[in-house]
Every structure is written in C-alpha cells, then in structure tokens.
C-alpha cells in the first residue's frame, strides 16, 4: 500500500513506516501531521486517482524533528569586469515518519437516509 502526497509544491511517494524529509512545516516536534492533499493511492490491487475518492484518503505522520539542509553556494562571476558575488542558502526542513494511510469508508447516501428516518 502506498500513496502520493503533495507538500511544498513537491510530491512524495509514501508507505507506512517510511521516513521522509519535506520543506518546513509549522508543526512542533513529536506532534502529528495529516496530509490532506493526496494525489494517488494504491492499496495493492486497486489504483485510485479520482479526486472524489481521494478526498476520503488521508496520510498521518509524526514529526521527528526540524532541521536544515546542506549549504548551497551560489557564486556569480563575470570575467574581466571585477564582478563576483558569493551567497549561501540552507533550506529549512521537517523530518517525518509516515504512520498510516487512512481510507474513510462512507455509507451510501440512500442507506444513511433510510437509517435516519427509521
């Protein structure tokens, strides 16, 4: 079983037990986070890509920690002009452990309406 979730304009293929690193999420360490934006879901025999069915799928994760990536050095240089600029960047990251992929089962509307009227 796996799902493809979207976070920070990137997509990640996740299964229960996976550990992933995503762009910084504003969630404290040790707390739970739920991915609502699921792009694709596969349960072993059925592949779901329909947005109406994907609205029932949620992926829960536990925040392991916050951190920063390795430094990326940006160096600009123009020969014979005396121009050079050096800048660095470290992206803020959140480490997550995927706990479960939750598929909400809903009763058909007719059956739910019949139960309420009875």
What integer value in Å does the Rg equal? 21 Å
Amino-to-carboxy terminus distance: 38 Å
One letter per element, helices H and strands E, the order comes to EEEEEEHEEEEH
How many strand segments? Answer: 10
State the low-pLDDT regions, or none.
none
> What value does the average pLDDT take?
91
Q: Overall 3D geometry?
A: elongated
Biggest sheet, open or closed, and with what strands and sense? 4 strands, antiparallel
Domain count: the total is 1
Q: State the strand order across the main sheet.
A: 2-1-5-6
Report on the structure:
The structure is a single chain. With 118 residues, the chain is mainly beta. It has one domain (2-117). The chain contains two helices and ten strands, in the order ββββββαββββα. The chain has helices at residues 51-54, 109-117; strands spanning 2-7, 10-14, 19-23, 32-35, 38-42, 47-48, 57-68, 72-78, 83-89, 92-103. The strands form three sheets. A four-stranded antiparallel beta sheet has the order 2-1-5-6. The chain has a four-stranded antiparallel beta sheet with strand order 3-10-7-4, with no helix packed on it. A hairpin with a 4-residue loop joins strand 5 and strand 6 (47-48). The longest helix is centred in the last third of the chain and has 9 residues, at 109-117. The mean pLDDT is 91.
């Amino acid at each position: 079983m796996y799902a493809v979730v979207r976070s920070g304009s990137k997509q990640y293929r996740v299964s229960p037990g996976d550990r992933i690193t995503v762009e910084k999420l504003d969630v404290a360490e040790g707390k739970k986070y739920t991915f609502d934006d699921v792009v694709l879901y596969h349960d072993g025999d059925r592949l779901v890509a329909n947005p109406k069915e994907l609205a029932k799928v949620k992926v829960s994760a536990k925040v392991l920690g916050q951190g920063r990536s390795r430094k990326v050095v940006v160096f600009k240089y123009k020969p014979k002009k005396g121009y050079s600029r050096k800048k660095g960047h470290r992206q803020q990251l959140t480490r997550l452990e995927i706990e479960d992929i939750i598929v909400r089962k809903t009763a058909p509307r007719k059956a739910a309406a019949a139960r309420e009227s009875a």
